[in-house]
Write a sequence for this structure.
């Protein structure tokens, strides 16, 4: 979304962001706590970042690391619905983005789903929490787009 805005593209009515990775920091509280899983681990994320960025210096680039965006760029985002898994190395990224948005006076929704790990939304047959989370996200999409 930051890229679209920078390029003068159309602004979305809103966005649903699920267990987001918004910075290239591997020392956040959730990366430390869930370094070895379950599920997603710090070494896996380090490998994924290397696939994504290669040798490029992207740490300060807000198009790759949205938490590096300035307040004006974050304030200009459409309304957001942030969902995070409580057992996920990426949890701190979502919490930090939510904190930054609240500090700007925005009222974006933030939901942390307890007891689940990264990727849990893929397990709607097995997990009631996944079904409930998708239902909540659908409701959020309707609110964000004014289609309640």
């Amino acid at each position: 979304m930051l890229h679209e805005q920078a390029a003068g593209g159309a602004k979305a009515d809103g966005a649903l962001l699920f267990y987001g990775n918004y910075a290239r920091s591997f020392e956040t509280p959730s990366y430390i706590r869930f370094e070895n899983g379950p599920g997603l681990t710090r070494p896996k994320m380090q490998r994924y970042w290397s696939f994504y960025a290669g040798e490029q210096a992207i740490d300060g680039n807000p198009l790759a690391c949205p938490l590096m965006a300035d307040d004006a760029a974050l304030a200009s985002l459409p309304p957001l619905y942030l969902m995070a898994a409580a057992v996920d190395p990426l949890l701190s990224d979502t919490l930090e983005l939510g904190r930054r948005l609240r500090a700007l006076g925005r009222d974006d929704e933030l939901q942390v789903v307890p007891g689940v790990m990264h990727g849990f939304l893929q397990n709607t047959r097995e997990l009631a929490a996944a079904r409930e989370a998708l239902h909540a996200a659908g409701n959020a999409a309707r609110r964000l787009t004014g289609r309640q």
